[in-house]
Every structure is written in C-alpha cells, then in structure tokens.
Amino acid sequence: MKIVVPGGTGQVGTLLRRALTAAGHEVVVLSRRPQRPGDLAWDGRTPGPWTDAVDGSDVVINLAGRSVSCRYTPANLREMMDSRVNSARVVGEAIARAARPPRLWLQMSTATIYAHRFDAPHDEATGIIGGTEPDVPDYWSYSVGIARNWEREQEAADTPHTRKIALRAAMVMSPDRGGVFDVLSKLTRLGLGGPVAGGAQYVSWIHDRDFVRAVGFLIDREDLAGPLNLAAPTPLPHRAFMRALREAWGVPVGLPATRSMAALGAFALRSDTELLLKSRRVVPGRLLEAGFAFDRPAWPEAATDLVRRRRGGAEIFSAESPGAART
Length: 327
Known about the structure:
Layout: E1 2-6, H1 11-22, E2 26-31, E3 39-41, H2 51-54, E4 59-62, H3 74-97, E5 104-108, H4 139-156, E6 163-169, E7 171-173, H5 180-189, E8 202-203, E9 205-207, H6 208-220, E10 226-230, E11 236-237, H7 238-249, H8 259-268, H9 274-277, H10 285-289, H11 299-312
Parallel strand pairs: 1-2, 1-4, 2-3, 4-5, 5-6, 6-10, 7-9
Antiparallel strand pairs: 8-11
C-alpha cells in the first residue's frame, strides 16, 4: 500500500513509519522540514505539490498538529487549534480533488475530547463530551474545543469515496526517547514518580504496538467509520499507574506532589498540568466490539515490557505487519 502521513515526524508518526515500512508499505511523510527520503514539504495550510502524493494513495493518516507538550498560553492554544484545524481542512481538500482518492482517511484526534470524570468510563456510545464540567480551569474547555473542531473538519470534508475515522487516541506509550513514557520514566527514576494531587484522576493509555496493530486493524476493516477510541481497555487511577511504573523500574519510592508542586514541575518542563490532572477514563468500546484483541491490555504488564525494551536499547518495534492485525 501507499500510505501518506501528514505530520509524521513526531513520536507517533515515527513509530508508525517504522512499522509500516518494515511491513513493506510505501510511506510518504508530509513535513514542514523534510529531512529523510520519502519526506515531502508542506505547510499544513495550503495545497501544493504534496497533493500529488495523496492522489492515488491507499491510506492517509493525518497526525499534524502542534505538540501539546508546552505551556498552555493563549498563543500556544491558538497554535494548537489552527495547526490541527487547518491541516485537517487542507487534507480534506486534497482528498476531495484527487482523481483517485484514498480509500481511508485516519484523522488523529484525542481522548481529551471527553469530560473530566471519575465515576464511569467513556466509550463512543455513552461517553460525555467535555467542555462544561464545573470546578475545572476554564482553558480545559478550549482543549475540548480543539478536539471538536479537529473532528468537525474531517466530518465536513466532501470525500464520498473515502472512509473516514477520527482516532480519539489516549497517550501512546513507547520506549522511544522524547515521548510521554520517557518523561514519566525519568521522573520515576529520580524518585519523583508518586501520585499527583492525590492520584485519583484516571490515566488512559495505549501500548505502542497495540496502537500500530489497531491502525492496521482499522485499515483492514472496511465496515468501521466515524469516531473511535484508541485506548487500552483498562484505564486506572494515576496513583496505581505510577505505582506500576515504579515497580517496572524497580524504584521503591515515589514522592507525591500537590497541585502547586505539579504546577512548578510542569513549568520547569515547559508543559501544563492539564496533562497530569485531567481524569481521562476512556475505553475502546468500538474496537472491542469489532473483535480487536489487545496484546497489552493491562498497564503493569505493558509497563514491564516498555521498561525491558528501553533497557535493551535495541530494536523498538517488531516487524509484524500492522496491516494484518490479530483479532
């Protein structure tokens, strides 16, 4: 297959490119700063020569958008919104104009679209879209608005010959450097991997190999379309999540942090406390109903595997084809 990946230079794009290429697919990455063979230049806003790659491709996986690992200033929030909405719009325009449009458009979205919630999990059928929760920072609703507008652009695109799926993805846990697992592991090994603000908030996550396998599953399953949660079936409270990570690394103690301490830490890391404090209790209802079987459904086993691979420092992803996911 020929697979075009706009915004494919980040952590998720890198692991997808590695897996898809290993499986024998032609992967074309669209990037503002193309550096590798197979990269094409684009600005994420306007059509250009890159549209020729979309025409005749089999699948487009749009991952473009400014990283959320930053301070949530008004300027950064606006850039997050614009980079996601504009890229989804121009990808939709390219598909609509293609003489031979791709059969599938996977559009990255986020599990953050759901409400801050402790009492029950969010699946696609019964989950509550966030933005109106009481007693949370006002800017959290802006994050939900980003996700809603992101998905709305894909929905509005006039692409009748292309199946569309919005990937409401949880945090993808990979042993690659620079990702969320890397950051949490560094804190844990420094003895700072304790619960934050009591640790009752839920963490939704997905193992990197299950993420890639799920993408392959969705490529193969022509009956699936619309919003779909990409998350392991066992979200867990932050305190239990960090305890399992400490055990995987063999670190006996993790100092807890208050909200104010978390704010200081997020400032030092140039990140934001929403990533730590929002309760994301998201489950993959549609994936499970469709028969997808997770290899790493539980966090303790997933964390152990990730630590082992990180310590090994060698091959990070096996050559199993993501286009032939087990069910």
